[in-house]
Amino acid sequence: xxxxxxxxxxxxxxxxxxxxxxxxxxxxxxxxxxxxxxxxxxxxxxxxxxxxxxxxxxxxxxxxxxxxxxxxxxxxxxxxxxxxxxxxxxxxxxxxxxxxxxxxxxxxxxxxxxxxxxxxxxxxxxxxxxxxxxxxxxxxxxxxxxxxxxxxxxxxxxxxxxxxxxxxxxxxxxxxxxxxxxxxxxxxxxxxxxxxxxxxxxxxxxxxxxxxxxxxxxxxxxxxxxxxxxxxxxxxxxxxxxxxxxxxxxxxxxxxxxxxxxxxxxxxxxxxxxxxxxxxxxxxxxxxxxxxxxxxxxxxxxxxxxxxxxxxxxxxxxxxxxxxxxxxxxxxxxxxxxxxxxxxxxxxxxxxxxxxxxxxxxxxxxxxxxxxxxxxxxxxxxxxxxxxxx
Length: 390
What we know:
Mean pLDDT: 74
Order of helices and strands: EEHEEEEEEEEEEEEEEEEEEEHHH
Number of domains: 3
CATH architecture of the largest domain: Sandwich
Number of strands: 21
Strand order of the largest sheet: 4-12-11-6-7-8
Largest sheet: 6 strands, mixed
Helix content: 25-40%
Distance between the termini: 176 Å
CATH topology of the largest domain: Immunoglobulin-like
Radius of gyration: 66 Å
Strand content: 25-35%
């Protein structure tokens, strides 16, 4: 065999490394001794190694007793040869080996420099002779970026706040955690999901909580090979919650509506009572007015009639009767006249009394006052004419 297989590094370029020192004898011996293992005489460690892309991978092979040649394979590709005596031969600068302790040949350290994901797979160490071979597994991981979307936030006390963390270009899918002021957050308080995107994985995580006070929120992403997680942090500023006037406003509004309702009911009751009291008074007043007007009209008519009779009949009576008749008639007439005048005077007093009663009952009704004053004056004038005969 004259060449070694291609090895791809981070930028996905490949190179072919010729191998010049292989011999048919070496590979015949390897074929003969590959499956012969002596317990506790040959040890390869670690058997499972996980490292980060760009770092070195290191394996140690410990052999008890005397041995001559040790050979290393990466993903079934021959990459390095270590003789007990002589120079170490490597297929590429990416591979190197040395004895763990100078001057001692029982331990060999094998190194793969600047590993990429293309190196992931089996790493085989074979010792010529009766020792056989041991196989270890190499896993190469990649770390990406972490970012909390929107950056710093502001919130009011007791407000629900949400933070979104995005991790991109990881392999394998990263594990995401959150911290508040440096204290880990329980995993039940946030949700994380991941999705494969070609050769990489992207992950998102949503953290929701109630704002209480100013807090430093950090999102961390990591894989097994990372010593320290990749993190992104923001600051949450919490403002005091304004006073809640809702309850107070509701109470004040309730009392106001109740008071308004009470006042409305009282007003309706008062108006109804006033109306009920005013209606009988109005009816009585109208009745008094009708009776008074009727009496005034009657007195006025009587007085006018008596005055007319006296003025038209007195001269005839005096010329046609005898002195005795005149005396009796005059006495009778005078008596009758006095009686009638007395009635008129009596009616006058009644009118005056009713007029005073009406004025006292309602002094503000000026129209009625003027009317009854005029009637009272007419009655007085008529009574005067009736009494004196002129």
